[in-house]
Structures are given as C-alpha cells and as structure tokens.
C-alpha cells in the first residue's frame, strides 16, 4: 500500500485524498488552516457553484488556457460524476441559469461537510494547523515531507507519493499563498508567473465612481487590446473600422468605486494581458440595432420636443446613469430636444452602443476568484497528474497553470484533477 501525503485540504485536496484512499492508499492530508475548505466556503458568494451542468464536450470552451491538458482528467471524472457524488452522499443539488450547479440549501458549508465526511469515512488522516515546509526527493523520486504544527519542532516523515493541492494565490486569507509553487520550484519545476484572474477591473475614467453600486443587466461588454497608447489611439480614430474584440460577453455588470465588476467584467479579466493597453466598449442596448435604437430615441424626442434633453432620456437608463450619459454625450442637458441636431443624435446613439472605458489594471489577488499561472503543464503527465521530473509527485487543482471562466468550471477542474491525481497515486507503485 502506498503511503500518500496530500498537501492542502481544499476541493482538489479532499477529492485527491478520497480517491487515493478508495484506491487502497494510506493517506494523510496536511492543512495549515484550522478547518477544511476555507476557499470553498466563500465561492459562489457563499453558495458554492459546485460545477457546471453543460455537456462535457462544451466544458473545454470555457477553459482559457491549456484546455487540452484537462482532457483526461475531465473525461475520467466529469461533472455528472461530481453531481452524483454529492447527491449519493446526501447533498442535493440544483441547476440554475447558465447551467450553474449549487447545493439546494444554498450553503457552501454543506458541500464542505459532505466532502470532508466522505474523506474521514474513507480513513484519511487530516492534520489541521499543520504547515508543510518542504517536499523532499532523492534520486528523482519523492521521499519525504517536512512539517510542523504551531511551535512544535519540524518533523520529517517519509512518503511514497505526494500530491500538491495548495491552490494558487487568490484570496490569500484562505491559505492560498503560493506554497505549492515554492515546493515545485525547489524540485526543479518551472512555474508560470501567477496573476489575478476572474478579478474586477480598475478603470481610468473617473465617471465610473459616480455609478458605484449600479448593476446593469442584459448588457454586452467588448474588450480590445493594443500594444500601446499609440496603437489604441489609431485604432479608435473616427471612421476607423473596429477589429475583432479579444472578448465579448453578454450579461450582468456592476460599477464600483474603482471601476467595474460583475460576471461579464470578471470573465473579461481572464483574457486581459497586463502588458497591453485595453479598451472596453459597453453596449447598453444590445437587443436593438443602431438603426432601431435611433428610431427609439427619435420617437422619444418627437413625443416631447420642448423638454430638456436630460429629462427625455430618463426612459432609456437607470436614473443614476442619466447624468453620466449626458456628460459623456457632450450635449447640454438643459437643451430642448427639438434643438438637437441629427449629428448630435447619431453620436448619442453611438455612445449608447459603445460607452468607452480604459482599463488601468485589475484588482489584487485579495479580490481575485482564481489564479492565472502555476505549475507548467508540459512538466505534468495529463493522464495521471504526475510530475514528469519527479516520480511520485503529483499536482491537482489551481496550483496548475490552468484557468477557466466563471460558472463552476474552475471547481470542476479541481474535482477532476484531484480525483485523477489521487487514484493514480494509489495505483502506481
């Protein structure tokens, strides 16, 4: 029987430990926090978006980087099996908009309890408040783990296999502080630099802060990226045809004191390259073509020709947005609409379809849902999650350089890679 150490008691770690124990491994989980699943607890705003119920073939369309690396893991333990696991263990699930799967109770704690109870039932030993200091290898093979608890002296314990499931860098208060990257580097692995992902944008334009707290539904956000300010200015010159956007998303968006957040903004951040200059265009009325919107605006103008511009457009936008749209339009809000020229109206319609924002950057890891970057996938066997450099060393979850869009896809990657790593570690001598 293989003696297996799992570092990290999160989604990937608990699933890896469970699969390893069921595969006849003697398993110990090391967790530096005082309880399991601290990051699971806050996912989905405390509800835990367990997975996504999409067709498994569609799953890979939502993986931003290194989707092919996940083929074996996803197909060996897909979303259906994840849902079956929780249902069979008494945690009932429901499917919501966008095929997002949540516990019926809307409590992420039920997901953690179900998983942790299964881990304990399988005979896994779990050491909380225990920090791993290093993973040792000898002659190209894993040999031991050193760890300590509180003020206790460092202990060195030999293991046949080690599975690193330490997460990335996002939400460091949950324990994701890059430990796994340090262990991997010490053993010769290359780590793709970590960046925040699924994270809010900071916006240069100061009018965004005036809209703090305003949530917009059924809008479309486009993101265009350029090598520098000069290229961005040239590409957005009057009459210049737009290039294909680097991202296009429809749904909900939220204004904040620093910029924008919400589902479509967070997903856009997955595609953001911080070395480039990014410009966002927000379509406030995506259901209408420019021609249809122009007719709508003209009708509103014709219905109240003597009313002031700022008062006529109140039917088009939430009240908080009206003064900002007046400001951005450059049209005097006191001006009666019968004095607005055709050119001014056309520019206003174009503004509604293309509200411009310039990205200053993203928020920090403290606000990032996931981490982009991690252990280089070329150094991991995708069919087992074992290191190609060190025999008996495995990786699972967010510590690997794979990231996805929002919607339960990242947790599915954790369940799948964890299950594959655990079952492989138990099976291989």
List keywords for this structure.
429 residues; alpha+beta; FAD/NAD(P)-binding domain; Helicase, Ruva Protein, domain 3; six-stranded antiparallel barrel; five-stranded parallel β-sheet; 14 helices; 23 strands; 31% helix; 27% strand
> How many helix segments?
14
At the fold tier of CATH, the topology name of the largest domain is: FAD/NAD(P)-binding domain
Mean pLDDT score: 96
What general outline do the C-alpha atoms trace?
A: elongated
Topology record:
Elements: E1 3-7, H1 11-22, E2 26-30, H2 38-42, E3 51-52, H3 56-59, E4 63-65, H4 71-76, H5 79-88, E5 93-96, E6 100-103, H6 108-121, E7 125-127, E8 130-138, E9 141-149, E10 155-158, E11 161-164, H7 179-186, E12 191-197, E13 201-203, E14 215-226, H8 229-235, E15 247-255, E16 259-261, H9 263-270, E17 277-283, H10 290-303, H11 309-312, H12 322-329, H13 342-353, E18 355-362, E19 370-375, E20 380-381, E21 386-387, E22 393-395, E23 403-404, H14 409-427
Parallel strand pairs: 1-2, 1-11, 2-7, 11-22
Antiparallel strand pairs: 3-6, 4-23, 5-6, 8-9, 9-10, 12-19, 13-16, 13-18, 14-15, 14-17, 15-16, 17-18, 20-21
Brief write-up:
This protein is of the alpha+beta class.
Structure, explained:
With 429 residues, this protein is of the alpha+beta class. It has two domains: 3-197 and 371-427, FAD/NAD(P)-binding domain; 200-363, Helicase, Ruva Protein, domain 3 (Orthogonal Bundle). Helices cover 31% and strands 27% of the residues. The protein has helices spanning 11-22, 38-42, 56-59, 71-76, 79-88, 108-121, 179-186, 229-235, 263-270, 290-303, 309-312, 322-329, 342-353, 409-427; strands at 3-7, 26-30, 51-52, 63-65, 93-96, 100-103, 125-127, 130-138, 141-149, 155-158, 161-164, 191-197, 201-203, 215-226, 247-255, 259-261, 277-283, 355-362, 370-375, 380-381, 386-387, 393-395, 403-404. Strands 13-16-15-14-17-18 form a six-stranded antiparallel barrel. Strands 7-2-1-11-22 form a five-stranded parallel beta sheet, covered by helices on one side. A three-stranded antiparallel beta sheet has the order 3-6-5. α1 (11-22) packs parallel to α6 and α1 (11-22) runs parallel beside α14. The N and C termini lie close together (9 Å). The model has no long low-confidence stretch (mean pLDDT 96).
């Amino acid at each position: 029987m293989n003696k297996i150490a799992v570092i990290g008691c999160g989604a990937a770690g608990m699933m890896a430990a469970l699969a390893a124990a069921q595969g006849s491994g003697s398993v110990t989980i090391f967790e530096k926090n005082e309880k399991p699943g601290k990051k699971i607890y806050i996912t989905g705003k405390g509800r835990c978006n367990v997975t996504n119920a999409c067709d498994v073939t569609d799953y890979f369309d939502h993986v931003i980087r290194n989707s092919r690396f996940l083929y074996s893991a996803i197909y060996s333990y897909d979303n259906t099996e994840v849902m079956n696991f929780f249902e069979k263990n008494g945690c009932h699930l429901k499917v919501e908009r966008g095929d997002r799967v949540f516990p019926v109770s809307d409590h992420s704690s039920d997901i953690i309890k179900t998983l942790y109870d299964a881990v304990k039932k399988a005979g896994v030993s779990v050491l909380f408040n225990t920090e791993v200091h290093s993973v040792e290898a000898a002659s190209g093979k894993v040999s031991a783990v050193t760890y300590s608890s509180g003020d206790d002296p460092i202990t060195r314990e030999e293991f046949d296999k080690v599975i690193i499931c330490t997460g990335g860098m996002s939400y460091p208060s949950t324990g994701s502080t890059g430990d796994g990257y340090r262990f991997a580097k010490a053993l010769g692995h290359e780590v793709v630099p970590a960046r925040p992902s699924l994270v809010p944008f900071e916006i240069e334009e100061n009018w965004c802060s005036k809209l703090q707290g305003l949530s917009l539904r059924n809008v479309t956000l486009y993101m265009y990226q350029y090598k520098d300010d000069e290229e961005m200015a040239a590409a957005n010159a009057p009459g210049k045809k737009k290039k294909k956007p680097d991202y296009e998303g429809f749904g909900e968006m939220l204004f904040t004191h620093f910029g924008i957040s919400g589902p479509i903004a967070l997903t856009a951040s997955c595609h953001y390259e911080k070395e480039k200059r990014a410009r966002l265009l927000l379509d406030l009325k995506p259901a209408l073509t420019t021609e249809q919107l122009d007719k709508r605006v003209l009708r509103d103008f014709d219905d109240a020709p003597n009313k002031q511009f700022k008062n006529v457009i109140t039917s088009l936008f939430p009240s908080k947005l009206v003064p900002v749209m007046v400001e951005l339009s450059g049209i005097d809000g006191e001006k009666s609409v019968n004095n607005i020229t055709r050119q001014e109206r056309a520019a206003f319609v174009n503004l509604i379809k293309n509200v411009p924002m310039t990205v200053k950057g993203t928020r920090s890891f403290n606000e990032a849902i996931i981490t982009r970057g991690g252990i280089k996938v070329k150094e991991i066997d995708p069919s087992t999650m074992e290191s190609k450099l060190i025999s008996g060393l495995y990786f699972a979850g967010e510590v690997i350089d794979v990231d996805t869009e929002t919607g339960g896809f990242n947790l599915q990657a954790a369940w799948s890679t964890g299950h594959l790593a655990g079952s492989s570690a138990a099976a291989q001598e």
